């Protein structure tokens, strides 16, 4: 446990630490992550009637039209999708755009991905990997 007395407590750990932590009474719980763990957090919060916000990986669409700085927009969208292999709450799930913007987006995205990860992206040390098959699925 890292304790910052004047601010807040930060607890680092896995399932055992989290299980123990959820036995405590809190004023409020904010959880972001999987639905499976979200159910566990909700059940534990119910024991003390603790209010909870569960952010369980909702959809994050992107709307892109021809008024945007396409070069900048593509870089930002691809960064959001590629950071941590797209496993973040803000990773774009899909793009809404015109056919013309779609063609430009795809072309620029291919260029940017090659710039970031090279011709053989699977071999790039900069490309994040999903650790387990379960998480991949």
UniProtKB/TrEMBL annotation:
It comes from Timema podura. Coiled coil: none annotated. The active site is at residue 55. InterPro entries: Ald_DH/histidinol_DH, Ald_DH_C, Ald_DH_CS_GLU, Ald_DH_N, Aldehyde_DH_dom, Aldehyde_DH_NAD(P). The lineage of its organism: Eukaryota, Metazoa, Ecdysozoa, Arthropoda, Hexapoda. Pfam families: Aldedh (PF00171). Keywords: Oxidoreductase. Belongs to the aldehyde dehydrogenase family. This is Aldehyde dehydrogenase domain-containing protein. Gene3D superfamilies: Aldehyde Dehydrogenase, Chain A, domain 1 (3.40.605.10), Aldehyde Dehydrogenase, Chain A, domain 2 (3.40.309.10). Residues 7-135 form the Aldehyde dehydrogenase domain. PANTHER family: ALDEHYDE DEHYDROGENASE, ALDEHYDE DEHYDROGENASE TYPE III, ISOFORM Q. The keyword Oxidoreductase applies.
